[in-house]
């Protein structure tokens, strides 16, 4: 699952290691646009220096299969987004997120912890410890992608902030600024976008604080400069462009619970046996993949999105139909 990025962002194309297996190297080169395969969207990726990726053969397994060769194209990852701060259509984030100012960026840390304060992205996320993690992501709308994220375990960030025994949950907020986020004139959601995790969920090694994907800095539509990635839960738990982290005692109310509590719960674990009130969750379509006869390919959804081995123990004894 882990591909260690040995160095941070400042390596040149020529530094791409020969240890990288052919496929990920090819994908990486494609993503960087070096092969001339660059399309409109990949040209729009912020001109980020390339990272050195040393892949570990046999990693990235999901349900017995290797995820490395299933990666969703950078174009799809950048152009089919949910980021309601820029509008509710899938194309709005790519079209409109350019107004977001991601540098400088500051994150306020507060609540039950020993190290509250204002942090820069680099203060929170150790850029010498970045890893690539290829995760399968599943949206509650029944579509999925496979994304090669770059980031660090959320636990690494949390350990730096030293929560006290009173901290039972971690809570996050996205930026509120109508000038930078024009979709916020629309009250679909009561801004800011809010999310949270139980402390033991947040400390699970699968949960990451991402700052990049495909070896490059996160694009704005994907949640620059830093966002959550929680692969066993529906995509909406992955809050983007985070400006606040708070350690709290009580279970926070997330944006989607507040909006529609019968449809979206706090846990939001991918559970194909619990239907969304308006549609089934048993299958999903993989963005960018088509079947031979012209339809979008459909896949079976697995419990915990296929990551049960790593996370099922977090929910021992809980009724996951009631705690959906
Ligand atoms: N701040 C914020 N974070 C957000 C959202 C949003 O609207 N606003 N949408 C969520 C949903 S529903 C999904 S599926 C994922 C999509 O992430 P992606 O566009 O990078 O694939 O982001 C999540 N994080
Ligand atoms: Mo979603």
Structure description:
With 324 residues, the chain is an alpha+beta fold. The chain has a domain at 51-259: Oxidoreductase, molybdopterin-binding domain (Sulfite Oxidase, Chain A, domain 2, Alpha-Beta Complex), CATH 3.90.420.10. 16% of the residues lie in helices and 24% in strands. It has helices at 22-32, 40-43, 74-79, 92-96, 121-124, 154-161, 199-203, 255-259, 308-311; strands at residues 2-5, 53-54, 61-62, 65-66, 107-111, 117-119, 131-138, 143-153, 169-174, 194-198, 208-213, 216-217, 227-229, 242-248, 283-290, 296-300. Strands 1, 2, 7, 8, 11, 12, 13, 15 and 16 form a nine-stranded mixed beta sheet that branches. Strand 3 (61-62) and strand 4 form a beta hairpin. Residues 5-59 have low confidence and may be disordered.
Task: Give the topology, please.
Elements: E1 2-5, H1 22-32, H2 40-43, E2 53-54, E3 61-62, E4 65-66, H3 74-79, H4 92-96, E5 107-111, E6 117-119, H5 121-124, E7 131-138, E8 143-153, H6 154-161, E9 169-174, E10 194-198, H7 199-203, E11 208-213, E12 216-217, E13 227-229, E14 242-248, H8 255-259, E15 283-290, E16 296-300, H9 308-311
Parallel strand pairs: 5-14, 8-15
Antiparallel strand pairs: 1-2, 1-7, 3-4, 5-6, 7-8, 8-11, 9-10, 9-14, 11-12, 11-13, 15-16
The ligand Nc1nc2c(c(=O)[nH]1)N[C@H]1C(S)=C(S)[C@@H](COP(=O)(O)O)O[C@H]1N2 binds at residues 81-85, 139, 174, 193, 222-223, 235-236, 238-241.
């Amino acid at each position: 699952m882990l591909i260690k990025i040995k160095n941070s962002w400042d390596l040149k194309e020529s530094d791409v290691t020969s240890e990288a297996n052919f496929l990920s190297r090819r994908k990486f080169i494609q993503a960087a646009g070096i092969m001339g395969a660059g399309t409109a969207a990949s040209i729009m990726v912020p001109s980020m220096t390339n990272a050195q990726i040393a892949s570990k053969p046999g990693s990235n397994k999901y349900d017995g299969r290797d995820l490395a060769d299933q990666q969703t194209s950078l174009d799809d990852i950048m152009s089919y987004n949910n980021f309601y701060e820029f509008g509710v259509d899938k194309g709005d984030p790519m079209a409109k997120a350019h107004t977001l100012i991601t540098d400088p960026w500051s994150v306020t840390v507060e609540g039950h912890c020993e190290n509250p304060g204002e942090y820069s992205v680099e203060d929170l996320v150790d850029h010498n410890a970045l890893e690539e993690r290829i995760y399968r992501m599943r949206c509650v709308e029944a579509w999925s992608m496979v994304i090669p994220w770059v980031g660090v375990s959320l636990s690494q960030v949390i350990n730096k902030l030293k929560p006290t025994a009173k901290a039972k949950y971690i809570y996050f907020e996205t930026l509120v600024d109508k000038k930078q986020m024009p979709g916020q004139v629309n009250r679909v959601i009561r801004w800011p976008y809010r999310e949270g995790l139980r402390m033991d969920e947040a400390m699970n090694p699968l949960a990451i604080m991402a700052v990049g994907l495909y070896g490059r800095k996160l694009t704005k539509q994907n949640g620059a400069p830093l966002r959550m990635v929680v692969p066993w839960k529906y995509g909406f738990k992955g809050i983007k462009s985070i400006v606040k982290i708070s350690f709290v005692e009580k279970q926070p109310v997330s944006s989607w619970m507040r909006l529609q509590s019968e449809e979206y719960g706090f846990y939001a674990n991918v559970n194909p046996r619990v239907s969304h009130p308006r549609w089934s969750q048993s299958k999903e379509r993989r963005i960018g993949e088509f079947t031979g006869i012209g339809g979008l390919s459909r896949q079976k959804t697995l419990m915990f999105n296929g990551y049960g081995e790593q996370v099922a123990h977090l929910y021992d004894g809980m009724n996951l139909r009631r705690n959906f």
